[in-house]
Amino acid sequence: MKAFLTVAEIGNVTRAAELLNIVQPAVSRQIRLLEEDLGIQLFERGRHGMALTDAGRALVEYGQRVMLELDRARALLKSSETAVGGLVTIGLLPSTSEMLASPLVTAVSQQYPGIRLRVAMGYAGTLLRWLETGEVDAALLYRAERSAEIQTTPLVEEPLWVIGPRDSGFERSQPVHLSKLVGRKFILPSAPHGIRTLVEHACRTAAVSLDLSVETNALSVQRSLVLGGHGLTILPPIAVAEDLAQGRLSGAPVCGPDIARTIVLALPSNRSTGRHIRSVVNILVEEMRRAVQAGLWPEGRWLAD
Q1: Measured between alpha carbons, how far is 143 from 157 in angstroms, rounded to an integer?
Q2: Partners of 263 in the beta sheet?
Q3: DSSP annotation string for 51-76
Q4: 32 and 41 in contact (C-beta within 8 Å)?
């Protein structure tokens, strides 16, 4: 399977053999044996390399999960019976990753040196899919993201703000009515992003329509375009906390109606959560609580007990 995934990525058996540190005929034989075992062709062989067939592309996704599970098992089995160890993958939202990733990694390495931590970043819909398929062990999602295969615990509620360049004149103490933003150009995430869903629901409630000029699913691009004067956006203030603090951007709460998001901790309900995963999750929750109570999470309100 490792040979198959490497050839699938590289598209060349000779180069894959170099990366795997085995001879080229051995890689070719492993691919051939895999195809014989499955009874289907996985690659189209051509003058310019190996191209995946439709069946090969389908197998890549399953193969990656197989290798991930083996990696998890290997890391867990290498840990001692008394120490907590293993591989844990945590999914973070882009707007929270900068604040949470470093403290989480530091605390885990200090408290559980036997744990190998992976931090995956993605939007809520992507993280939900990864959680369902087992690519992440736990994730932060929005309350709006629902699935029968996950259980959630609300942790933080925060308002969404209208964000603009420094000369936009927005002030934290002066909420902006949604109707006052009609006619202004906006840069928002593409549907069905969680924030886009919240904004669209608020617009329907207020019977208004915003002028959407650019859609992007990259937070960095949203920020860059707003800084460049291409329009306004709507985000939780934590997403651009440093820019707000330094005066590069200005922001104000949205009202009429208020718009808020709830961040939840999501865990799978269809598979067991080991001690090593629970240990990392407990640290993540504690770091989030500490950030809110210390005022490091702008406008965040702690919901958990």
Answers
A1: 10
A2: 142, 156
A3: EE-HHHHHHHHHHHHHHHHHHHHHHH
A4: no
Cβ neighbourhood burial of 216 (10 Å; 0-12, 13-18, 19+) = middle
Query: Can you say how many angstroms the Cα of residue 28 is from the centroid of all Cα atoms in its chain?
Result: 36
pLDDT digits (tens, 9 = 90+) for 48-100: 788 999 999 999 988 988 887 787 777 666 655 557 888 899 999 998 998 99
Q: How far is the first Cα of the chain from the last one, in angstroms, to the nearest whole number? A: 45
Strands 161-165 and 301-302: unpaired
Q: What are 252's strand-pairing partners?
A: 162
**Pairing assessment for the beta strands 161-165 and 43-46 based on DSSP bridges:** unpaired
Contact 212, 186 (CB under 8 A): yes
Q: Is-cis flag, bond preceding 298, omega within 30?
A: no
Domains, the chain, ranges and CATH?
A: 2-76 (1.10.10.10), 81-157+262-302 (3.40.190.10), 161-258 (3.40.190.10)
Q: What is the pLDDT of residue 165?
A: 96
Residue 235: closest CA among 155, 103, 226? 226
Task: Name which of 88, 89, 97, 87 is nearest 263 in CA terms.
Answer: 97
Residue 212: closest CA among 228, 193, 229, 233: 233
Query: Are 134 and 268 within 8 A, CB to CB?
Result: yes
Q: Is the Cβ–Cβ distance between 41 and 53 less than 8 Å?
A: yes
pTM over cut 0.85:
no
Identity (one letter) of the amino acid at 191?
A: A
Buried b (16+ CB within 10 A) or exposed e, 63-89: beeeebeeebeebbeebeeeebbbbbb
